[in-house]
Amino acid sequence: MQTQGAWVVVGLDNGGNKNNATVLDPARGSLVDGMVETPSRVTEGPEIAVEALIQAFDGILRQTGIPRENVRAVGLDTPGPASAEGVISSMGSTNFAHDGWRGFDFRGALERRLKLPVVYNNDGNAAALYAHHVCFGAEAARHSSVSAIVGTGLGGGVIESGRIIKGAAGMAGELGHVHIPMQGLLAEGQPVPHCNCGFDGDAESVASLTGIEKNLLPYWLSRHPGHELESAPSVSQAAKLVRSCGERGDPMARRIFEQQAMAIGRLFTIAANFTDPSAYFVGGGVVETAREFREWFMSKVRENTTLREEQARVARFALVPDLDMAGARGAALAALEHATRSSSS
Q1: Across the chain, how many H-helices and E-strands are there?
Q2: What sign for the dihedral angle of Cα 25, 28, 34, 36?
Q3: Which of 32-36, 254-258, 270-274 is least confident?
């Protein structure tokens, strides 16, 4: 039971299919051990999706036995693209394809309905914030970090002094669209990879599931005639099987993932010269794998991250922990920071 005067924050992680909710007590930490998922209903438009988030909010309070009046702030994270204030891009996005989402103020709509402060971040930034705080704990405010999260695209975040760097338009930390050197990464005759954003040769064009499907796998299958993935019904389905092949040590799959690790290492090299972070985190399906493959992949990332001697002595390389929970918990941490700052001002 909550004691009189105690307060908490709630984290809401909004996804293409599910909402995940958590509760963070500043004294006791997270009050939720695992995922608490409910349908996000984003394909039905913003009004229904906002209502679904309210149901997730009410449900997590019932589960944890927290009175609503004890909630001081709410953290919300969603997939991008969206502004720093949580306004969905006027161009729409994969997760927000319904016409009603274009230019919709998601954060503001939820705040008006809940009548509580709502703090917004994109899902990559929220996961990056969580990884940072797990790694550094009470020392989080004294450190910086960069996170690369490999999924359908390449998300991530930049944390400085324990806080998310958002940028003027909310687009800071879009690491997937940073151009990286391709010389020495591409094999002989391999085309320069193209990204869905329109760029050629950015990190996401290599280090993402989309990069495998559109750029890497077609080339490598042409160099390995008779490979088992040629029999997959489509390139899209074959791309999803590359990881399991890599875990078994398949040479072609390992070459694909080596290129992905090289891309992330080169991205981290740019970060080393631009922000000089204390830690470099990698997350996503590429490292949610068998231990041997995960350690092999991370070793390749480190090999391809060029640091000065002084940087190498202090830098950490680690995985984004608890990735399924990282969004909700990172959103809650952002809400906690807001609530703490508001109460002290």
Answers
A1: 10, 11
A2: negative
A3: 32-36
